[in-house]
Design a protein that fits this description.
Structural class: alpha+beta
Strand content: 35-45%
Largest sheet: 6 strands, mixed, barrel
Number of strands: 13
Order of helices and strands: EHEEHHEEEEHEEEEEHEH
Shape: elongated
Helix content: 10-25%
Strand order of the largest sheet: 1-3-2-6-5-4
Radius of gyration: 26 Å
């Protein structure tokens, strides 16, 4: 199975009843739109799509969608799931125009966590504030993921949006619209128990210092 290639069929029936019949037959409804063309309703084999979802590359790569004898270059823009069953309900694909930028959410890969100075030297723990990032770029520049280097982050420090090293041609979508470049992506802090112990020790030291200070004579 090629993760980046899907087979679909045109779909003519519309409406909730038609979609329910389609799902009972083991297929899911979908739509392809964009690139200046009319939207096209399609259907895909449910399990064929489901088996690809554990590969993060499926969400952040350009896919080849084969509909009858036509091939479209697309990306996944929306995926609707059943609220409590492991079923897919609908999938949206956006056609790719190689000359137009697209906005996509791509996963963040946190690298060098074991070498992080805040972990190795100070016993800190890493918290991931963000696990994915919305970016803007031309289709040819679309990365499957973006690395976030944790090696030089100390306890009490954070990696901010402005610290991320982006591939050439890639921009952070939020920053294009005036977002906060100082927003935290990951932090390194002491474990909760350790912080509480240090706070207690500090309080005890302050109390001892107070007790050792002579009282003013009345």
């Amino acid at each position: 199975m090629q993760v980046n290639e899907l087979k679909a069929e045109p779909r003519n029936d519309r409406g909730k009843s038609a979609s329910r019949r389609l799902r009972r037959s083991g297929r899911i409804p979908g739509i392809v739109y964009g690139a200046g063309k009319d939207p096209q309703s399609i259907s895909l084999v449910h399990d064929d799509v489901l088996h690809r979802l554990d590969r993060e590359v499926f969400y952040s790569s350009i896919l080849t969608l084969n509909v009858d004898t036509q091939s479209e270059r697309v990306v996944v823009k929306d995926l609707q799931r059943h609220p409590f069953k492991p079923d897919l309900l609908h999938i949206d694909f956006l056609r790719i125009d190689e000359k137009q930028k697209i906005s996509m959410r791509v996963p963040l890969h946190f690298v060098n966590e074991h070498q992080c100075v805040g972990v190795k030297a100070d016993g800190g723990v890493i918290s991931h504030i963000m696990t994915e990032l919305e970016i803007s770029c031309l289709p040819a520049d679309l990365p499957e993921y973006i690395d976030v280097d944790m090696a030089q982050v100390h306890v009490g420090e954070s990696v901010h949006l402005s610290d991320i090293v982006l591939p050439e041609g890639v921009e952070i979508y939020a920053l294009l619209s005036g977002g906060d470049a100082s927003a935290s992506v990951a932090t390194v802090s002491l474990p909760k128990g350790t912080m509480e112990e240090e706070e207690m020790e500090q309080e005890e030291e302050e109390l001892e210092a107070t007790e050792e200070t002579p009282a003013e004579e009345q």
